[in-house]
Amino acid sequence: MDVRSIVDCEPEVEHNGTVPVWYLVHPREIKDLTDGGFVELINEFEVAAGGAVFPHSHPTHEWYFVMSGRGVMTVGEEERPVGPGDLVYIPPDEVHSLRPVGGGAIHCFCFAVGVKGAAPVDYTTH
């Protein structure tokens, strides 16, 4: 499972030395992986304590960025704890799920790149 944490990144300085940037994905790093795709969605979501994003899959490259709370992310057969500052990559058609732990909700920012030629996805059932 590809999980990158902001706490493991050293800032790089950009914009004439005025802006520190913490790259979780460097420019063009995923170009070949997503070539021919399209932005499928960008959203924020929250899973309440006791809830879950149930196991599902879809034809997208998907990333969850944990903004607050703690949880357990499952991608394929691998489980991993995640928390604030973690960026989780979910490959296309890989079964994945997320559940909060620690008694509170987990709040994430999500974006996905659709696979070239993929059919529309009904997210109300996923």
Straight-line N-to-C gap: 21 Å
Alpha carbon gyration radius: 15 Å
CATH hierarchy, class: Mainly Beta
What does the main sheet amount to? Answer: 5 strands, antiparallel
Strand order of the largest sheet: 1-9-6-11-4
**Shape, per Cα inertia axes:** globular
Kindly state the number of beta strands: 11
Count of domains:
1
- The number of helical runs is 1
Identify low-pLDDT runs.
Answer: none
CATH topology: Jelly Rolls
Fraction of helical residues: under 10%
β content, as a range? over 45%
Based on the coordinates given, report the CATH architecture. Sandwich
Q: Please tell me the overall pLDDT.
A: 95
Secondary structure topology:
Elements: E1 2-5, E2 12-14, E3 19-21, H1 31-34, E4 38-47, E5 53-56, E6 60-68, E7 70-75, E8 78-82, E9 86-90, E10 96-101, E11 106-114
Antiparallel strand pairs: 1-9, 2-3, 4-11, 5-10, 6-9, 6-11, 7-8, 7-10
Your description of this structure?
- The chain is mainly beta and 126 residues long.
- It has a single domain, classed as Jelly Rolls.
- The protein is built from one helix and eleven strands.
- The strands form three sheets. Strands 1-9-6-11-4 form a five-stranded antiparallel sheet, with no helix packed on it. A four-stranded antiparallel sheet has the order 5-10-7-8, with no helix packed on it.
- Strand 2 and strand 3 form a beta hairpin.
- The longest helix is centred in the first third of the chain and has 4 residues.
- The mean pLDDT is 95.
